[in-house]
Structures are given as structure tokens and as C-alpha cells.
Write a structure and sequence with these properties.
Number of domains: 2
CATH class of the largest domain: Alpha Beta
Order of helices and strands: EHHHEHEHHEHEHHEHHEEEHEEH
CATH architecture of the largest domain: 3-Layer(aba) Sandwich
Largest sheet: 8 strands, mixed
CATH topology of the largest domain: Rossmann fold
Low-confidence stretches: none
Number of helices: 13
Number of strands: 11
Bound molecules: S-adenosylmethionine
Structural class: alpha/beta
Length: 303
């Protein structure tokens, strides 16, 4: 298995800097034991958010395949987690010619779990694996270029079930910088539904979610049982926010996950330079599936 490390994985020193702003981004929770905690959460049938995302993922993949056409395309899968999407992905997309499957994750354990749990799918395909923080500038750009060196000449980037990554504006900037005109970006994300905000928030109160978030708190020296968690839906920012309040200290922000409304989401994507090629909102599970390209610039604005 070819595994490359790109850039720097945030350390405990970096965590201290975030803590000064009373924040512990969830990316500090995924490496090492966090990979197995994620697998436990993803295997729990009460993890409704994950089931909703898979409905949109599975439902829209055939259409995505039709839109992008039959020429070979590399799949650049951002944060595959434990690889639950892999069977659906490979049953729809056959890699053709020199096309490569590429898994990118901040956590080596996630990559290990993805391969171990989906061994039969990986036994005879071209594959590349990268350990990288895709929220940091230029890592993803390097990866997307590197994949094309030996792979096909175009990429389909998958950012699926990644509301947390999409709540960081840097993520869309990094994606834009990583894409060329022939590339596609596929997003699935749970959206807002004003009548279901209780249901949306309740996923974040599952014991398995708290256990995952606790990895970051413990790395920062906190005892998760010596404090209180609080989950809210921030209507202004269209996102779920999870906080931890340690005894005698100010609250710490532990997770933010973007839950867009359709108009705002379209505005965000267009404003970030993307052109929407396909969009469907799965109303029952209030989840979007979107396929984008980079917006075509006219010759004048390219000069
Ligand atoms: C919410 S899980 C989604 C996993 C998968 N798409 C699914 O639906 O099961 C997030 C995944 O993205 C990875 N991840 C989170 N932040 C990241 C970052 N900044 N850079 C790279 N990978 C990241 C995590 O390690 C994990 O595998």
C-alpha cells in the first residue's frame, strides 16, 4: 500500500494555540484511538446523520456518473472514515484505464480501518493514500496534482458527510485551488430543516459522539466527566455547535457542522467560484447531493 505524508499533522502544541481561543477543532480527535471511536459511531444504527448522508450518496451516484461521463476519472475521497461509502462507490464507479482511487485523511487509523474493512474492493485497483490535513492551505492542491501524475487526467473529489469541514471557509478555498477545469467536486451534506432541528442536534448527543469529542478534550488535559456538554443549532450561522463547559472555566467550542439552507448553499458555492452541475435535496432526510465544477472564466477575466 502506497502511503504518502503531505504537510504537517496538527500537534498538541497547535492544540494549545486553539485552546487560547477556547476551541478544540474535531480534527484533533480523529488520529489514533479516534479512528476506532469513529468506527464505533459509524456502526451504530442510531447514528442517523450518517444514514441520511448514505441515502443521498447512494441515490445520487448514478446521476453523478452520468453527468461526468465515461472517460477515466480518479476518485479523490476526502476523509473516508472507516470506508462505509466504499462498497456503494465501487459498485457504481468502475475505475477505468489508469484511473486511481485516492484516500486522504488526517488519521492513519482511519486509512487502516478503511482498507481492513473493505479489503475485497482494494485487492486489485490502482490506489494511493495520503495522510494530510486538508484544512491547511496547499496540501490538497499538492495531492490533486500528484494523483494525476500516474493516474487519469481528471479528478472527481468526494467531500461527503463532511459538514464539519464545510463549516471552515478555508476548506472550499482549498478545494477551489486544487481543481482544474476538467475536475469535479461531489458533496453530500445534511441541510437545515427548521422543523427538524431537534432531530438534527440529537445525533451530536449520542454517547459515541461525546466519546469521540472527548479525545480532543483529553489531549488538552480535560476530564470529560468533569464538565457538561451542550449542543445548539445556531440559526444565524446555519450550523450545529457543540460546547464543553469544564468546572470553573469558560466553555470550549468542540464542534461546528454546517447545515445549509438551499439558497444559502447555492450562494456559498457560487460565491466560492463553483458552477453547479447537479443538485438534489433529499427532503425526507434533509440532505443535499451536489456536483460542481470550477466556474468557467471568460477569456477576458483570465487575462
Ligand atoms: C465525519 S467523518 C466522515 C467519514 C465518511 N465520509 C463517512 O461518511 O463515514 C470525517 C472524516 O474526515 C477526516 N478528517 C476530518 N478532518 C480532516 C482534515 N482536516 N484533514 C483530513 N481529513 C480530515 C476524519 O479523519 C474522518 O475520516
Amino acid at each position: 500500500m502506497k502511503l504518502k505524508r503531505i504537510g504537517k499533522i496538527p500537534s498538541n502544541e497547535d492544540l494549545k494555540k486553539y485552546l487560547q481561543q477556547r476551541s478544540i477543532p474535531i480534527k484533533f480527535c480523529y488520529p489514533k484511538e479516534g479512528g476506532n471511536k469513529w468506527h464505533k459511531l459509524r456502526s451504530n444504527n442510531k447514528y442517523d446523520l450518517g444514514a441520511r448522508e448514505l441515502t443521498a450518496f447512494k441515490g445520487s451516484l448514478p446521476d453523478i456518473k452520468t453527468v461526468i461521463g465515461a472517460q477515466p476519472v480518479n476518485l479523490v475521497h476526502l476523509g473516508p472514515g472507516d470506508g462505509i461509502e466504499i462498497p456503494i462507490l465501487f459498485e457504481t464507479f468502475m475505475l477505468k484505464g489508469n484511473a486511481v482511487y485516492t484516500g486522504v485523511d488526517i488519521s492513519e487509523q482511519m486509512i487502516y480501518n478503511t482498507v481492513r474493512l473493505n479489503n475485497s474492493y482494494f485487492s486489485d485497483i490502482n490506489q494511493l493514500w495520503y495522510i494530510a490535513d486538508i484544512e491547511a492551505e496547499s496540501n490538497l492542491e499538492l495531492i490533486c496534482k500528484d494523483v494525476k501524475k500516474d493516474g487519469a487526467g481528471r479528478n472527481l473529489i468526494l467531500l461527503t458527510n463532511q459538514g464539519v469541514l464545510l463549516s471552515n471557509p478555508q476548506t472550499l478555498e482549498n478545494l477551489y485551488d486544487s481543481m482544474q477545469d476538467q475536475d469535479y467536486l461531489f458533496i453530500t451534506i445534511e441541510g437545515d430543516d427548521k422543523d427538524k432541528r431537534g432531530e438534527i442536534c440529537s445525533t451530536y448527543d449520542l454517547p459515541e459522539v461525546r466519546s469521540l469529542i472527548s479525545v480532543g478534550l483529553q489531549r488538552a488535559g480535560y476530564k470529560p466527566d468533569k464538565g457538561r456538554f451542550r449542543t445548539i443549532f445556531n440559526k444565524e450561522k446555519s450550523r450545529v455547535e457543540v460546547y464543553f463547559k469544564p468546572a470553573n472555566e469558560q466553555e470550549i467550542s468542540c464542534l461546528t457542522s454546517y447545515k445549509p439552507k438551499e439558497d444559502d448553499f447555492i450562494r456559498l458555492l457560487k460565491g466560492s467560484g463553483f458552477e453547479i452541475q447537479f443538485m438534489r435535496f433529499y427532503e425526507k432526510v434533509h440532505t443535499f447531493a451536489v456536483l460542481c465544477k470550477k466556474e468557467k472564466q471568460d477569456v477576458q477575466s483570465k487575462l
